[in-house]
Design brief:
136 residues; alpha/beta; two-stranded parallel ribbon; 5 helices; globular
């Protein structure tokens, strides 16, 4: 998976991560690692542009949740947390939108996964870049 990183300016600097192709069990840790790298470099607000992502598995949902936790608490749960991270996702979805991570342009298949999982109740989803930037 290729991940393009760019910077945008809203009320604060926003780091845009744009993965391509699939986000699944074979590569979800790459997305987490890239977000962690950017966070360590000072990024605090992230826009995840999913326009090039054609498929997202449950591992991809975990990656989104882990990145949200990173932006909220500055930590990434260890790999050993496994399915507990997935169960925590269900609990955290009920807490409302996350302030530091937003999603942009999910393709229909990915949008359906976000909806079925309830992730769209946890992370705001936008189809307009400016609206997404203004939401931070």
């Amino acid at each position: 998976m290729e991940i393009v990183v760019s910077q945008r300016q809203g009320r604060a600097p926003i780091t845009v991560l744009q993965p391509s192709e699939r986000v699944d069990g074979s590569n979800h840790t790459e997305l987490i690692a890239r977000a962690q790298e950017e966070y360590t470099a000072g990024a605090r607000d992230f826009l995840l542009d999913l326009g090039e992502v054609t498929y997202m598995s449950s591992a991809g949902l975990i990656a989104l949740h882990v990145i949200a936790l990173l932006t909220l608490h500055g930590i990434v749960p260890g790999e050993e947390s496994g399915w507990e991270a997935f169960r925590a996702l269900g609990r955290d979805v009920k807490g409302g939108y996350q302030p530091h991570l937003k999603l942009l342009n999910p393709q229909p298949k990915v949008e359906k996964v976000l909806s079925v999982s309830g992730m769209d109740q946890y992370l705001q989803v936008f189809t307009d870049l400016q609206a997404a930037l203004d939401a931070f």
